[in-house]
Amino acid sequence: MRLEPLGDSAVVATLGSRIDSESLAPVLALARAVREAGARGVVEVVPAYATVTVFYDPLQFANPDEDAYGIICGLIEACAERAVGGDHAGRDFEIPVCYGGEFGPDLGHVALHCRLDAEEVVALHCAGDYLVHAIGFTPGFPFLGGLPAPLATPRRDTPRARVPAGSVGIGGSQTGVYPIASPGGWHLIGRTPLALFLPERSPASLLRPGDRVRFRRISQAQFESWK
Q1: What angle do helix axes 107-114 and 118-127 make, rounded to 10 degrees?
Q2: Could you give the C-alpha distances from 182 to 137, 139, 192, 195, 208, in angstroms and in order?
Q3: What's the rounded Cα separation, in Å, for the pair 121 and 108?
C-alpha cells in the first residue's frame, strides 16, 4: 500500500495497479474499515478502482503538536491491517436502455469501429456483466468495468458540450451513464429513463462502487412511458 497526500486535506491510499474485481475487493474493505472507525477529522472516504481517498478537516488538528497528515496515514494503516474478510458484496441493478436513434447518435460509429452491425453492438452491450469501479466525474456517474472486449472504442476526438442526462456511452474499455446533463467525450449508444442521481434522494446517487449492473433493451415507447 502506498500513501500520498492529495492537496492539504486528503490522503490517497493506492492498493494496486489493476482495474478488476479482485483489485476492487480490498479497496472496498479498506474504505469500509475507515468509515466504521469514526475517526476525528475524517470528512469523506472515496473508493475508486485501486485507491481509497480519505478526505479530512485540517482544522480538527489545530494543536501544534498534531500532524494531521501523519495521523490520517496512521489511521489508514491501522484500518488496512483489519480490513480483511467480511461481506463486501455489492447490489444488483438492471438499467433499461433505449438504443440508437436520437438517444444513441454514436451507435453507428461504434458499430463501424468494431466491425459489427448495430444490432450486434446492442446485443453485446446487454450481455455484459458490469461492475461499478468508481463514481465521478459528475455526481453519480458510474464507471463500469466489464465491457465486452469487441465493443472497446476510443473516446471522441472532440467532446460534446452537452450530453443529455441518462445517456449511455462507451469510452475506451468502459461503459457508463451520464446521470445529469454535462459535457462528455464518450460515444453515445443509448439512453435510460432511470434517474441515477437525484439531489433530494438519500443517498443521491443510485449506484456505488462494488454494485453490479446489467443493461436491458427497451423500445422508444417504453422509454417515453417510463414512470
Answers
A1: 90
A2: 10, 10, 15, 15, 20
A3: 9
